[in-house]
Amino acid sequence: MTNINKLFLLVVVAAWHSAKSTTQAFQLHQRPRIIPPLCSTFSRRNPTGAVTSRCSLASNVSVRPTTDVSHFDAHFHDADIETTTTSRRSFLSSAAIFSTATALATTIISSCQPAVAASLEEAATYAYRSGGLPSLTTLGITKLYTRYEGFVLAPENYHSKSRGTKISNLAIQFDFPTDWLQLDKLGGGIQYVDQRNGDKLYVLRAALPEGTDLKTVSKSWFGDVIFHPEGDVVRSGVVVDGYRVARSQMVNDCSADGDSGSSGSSSSDDCQLQRRLLLKYDTVTGNGVQTVERRGLVDAHQIPGTRDVYMMVTASNAVKFEAKGSRERETVETIVNSFKIG
């Protein structure tokens, strides 16, 4: 159990005890507390010689409220008993403790969540498959890689200026290791995993904030939408402890003298802005105690005339990714370099 979980458990227990005390005080405030009658015990020897004990109840026991309805006094006329009183002040004090404990629990939970932008319009979700099943073709003699060719849903009301028609599906293509396993087949998302080391790839989409494009938006926006609590990366089971965007570079800025990039089109109307980023983040292991450093590569493309960005996102172990001559790094770089959409 993590320190956060332990702290939260302690606050919940304190709040529960406070609530229990408040409830008891409230009940006592509503009606008089009946104190069990006194018992005077005496012994005597019976005719057989055995010693027996008897209990005699105190007489004239009465319980009556005082003039102040916030107090109740129990009087025992035949016994010297101190009056038991519960006041409204005690009740309000217990209620205040419970409210404070509840507020403290809420604050702790909020402060322990990963930092995300509160004003995000949308989290990064899967770019859902469309247009039928994809084509999977093994490459080369060794067949170590497979080429994925298919379609994903286009942005709503998207029109290609060069074609002059509305487009419902976008063509998508990328290469990935043949032995990687596809996940979420029924859900419609595109996600593959290397079962040996946990490396993954995701195809995601998100909407840019108003007034920005792929070139001007802050690089931190990518980390915020990819690791948003409502995004499909986190919802797929990844528990992120912290993240930052370490590097960002424009691959194609659609300038007049720039390269046409991976869009494969020389038309400025259909030119795709393309950006490459490196993510550094930590994930929590299944036992909730240890964290593992991870590295992610992001290849992002903005669909012309829209605020929609489609991303190929890979995830790798940080130690293996940073190692010299790393095969894992070579693999994920091959994946993002082969990504094309539109």
Structure description:
The chain has 342 residues and is α+β, with helices and mostly antiparallel strands. The protein has two domains: 3-33 and 60-111, no CATH class; 125-341, Protein Transport Mog1p, Chain A (3-Layer(aba) Sandwich). Helices cover 23% and strands 36% of the residues. It has helices at residues 3-30, 88-111, 220-226, 232-235, 318-322, 327-337; strands at residues 39-45, 51-57, 61-65, 72-76, 125-126, 129-139, 145-153, 159-160, 165-166, 169-177, 181-183, 191-193, 200-207, 240-252, 273-284, 291-302, 308-317, 340-341. Strands 5, 11, 12, 13, 14, 15, 16 and 17 form an eight-stranded antiparallel sheet that branches. Strands 6-7-10-18 form a four-stranded antiparallel sheet. A two-stranded antiparallel sheet has the order 1-2. The chain starts with a helix and ends with a strand.
